[in-house]
Amino acid sequence: MGDKIKIVKIDTDKYPKIASRYAIQALPTLLVFRDGKQADRIEGNEAGKVLMNGQLLADRLQYLLFSGSST
Fold this sequence. Notes:
This protein is of the alpha+beta class and about 70 residues long. The protein has 3 helices and 2 strands.
């Protein structure tokens, strides 16, 4: 299949241009990219829950990988 997932944490204080580029206004913010395009965005409390619960994150990523959907 060749699908790969890479998770990157960005310090928005250190890299404000990246935060601005992706309109990050709440922390944490989780952006998921598929084929170089943003496929999902999860912000604030919901992102925190997803990041702390590996199964929620796995389910969301699996849906994106296999559904062909993008938001």
